[in-house]
Amino acid sequence: MKRKSIWAAATVLLTALILVLCIPQARIQAQQIGDQVLLQMKFIKAGPQTQGAGVLQTGEVNSLSAAVATATLTQVVAAPTSGSIYLRGILLEKVTATTGSVTVQSGTGTNCGTGTAVLLGPVVIPPAGYLRLDIQVPAAKALCLQTDAATTSVRALYD
């Protein structure tokens, strides 16, 4: 009988010892995983996105062009010296229910006056809101937008 109680006490002590040794390891491992996730994130402190020095960046950084609401082809992003523009989408701020159109084009020269190529459109009576495009503008080409007139206002989201 005494042996059974000694074995029972030893089993309880051994189980308690195992639990004490294992639990801190689980906390340390969770902390290490959290630290690794933080190391993968970048803090923005320089470059073109200096508006938010010390801002934690966890996704993509894009730029929003000026609004275009004219029937004249208007350059919204200048041609880069190297590489190309990646058009994420367009933001239609103002549209009418019965008229309106938007065209996305690329080209060179003033307001894409030469070498013009239509990338999208004309999209007639587009819905207001964000329209995801994911279009890569050809290398060394500017990005231009054109609407039907003042009844439609559009911006480009690009990087």
Describe the protein.
It contains one helix and ten strands. The protein has 159 residues and is of the alpha+beta class. The protein has two domains: 2-57; 63-158, Jelly Rolls. The strands form three sheets. A four-stranded antiparallel β-sheet has the order 3-10-5-8, with no helix packed on it. Strands 4-9-6-7 form a four-stranded antiparallel β-sheet, with no helix packed on it. A hairpin with a 5-residue loop joins strand 6 (101-108) and strand 7. The chain is elongated and about 100 Å long. Residues 42-51 have low confidence and may be disordered.
**Second CATH tier, the architecture of the largest domain:** Sandwich
Distance between the termini: 78 Å
Q: What proportion of the residues form beta strands (DSSP E)? A: 35-45%
The profile of the biggest β sheet is: 4 strands, antiparallel
Summed up, the domain count is 2
Rg over CA atoms, rounded to whole Å, is 29 Å
User: What is the CATH class name of the largest domain?
Assistant: Mainly Beta
CATH fold title of the largest domain: Jelly Rolls
Q: Helix count? A: 1
Number of strands: 10
Question: How are the secondary structure elements laid out?
Answer:
Layout: H1 2-40, E1 42-44, E2 55-57, E3 63-64, E4 74-77, E5 86-94, E6 101-108, E7 114-124, E8 129-136, E9 142-147, E10 153-158
Antiparallel strand pairs: 1-2, 3-10, 4-9, 5-8, 5-10, 6-7, 6-9
Short description:
It contains one helix and ten strands; from the N terminus they run αββββββββββ.
Protein traits:
single chain; 159 residues; alpha+beta; Jelly Rolls; 2 domains; 4-stranded antiparallel beta sheet; 1 helix; 25% helix; elongated
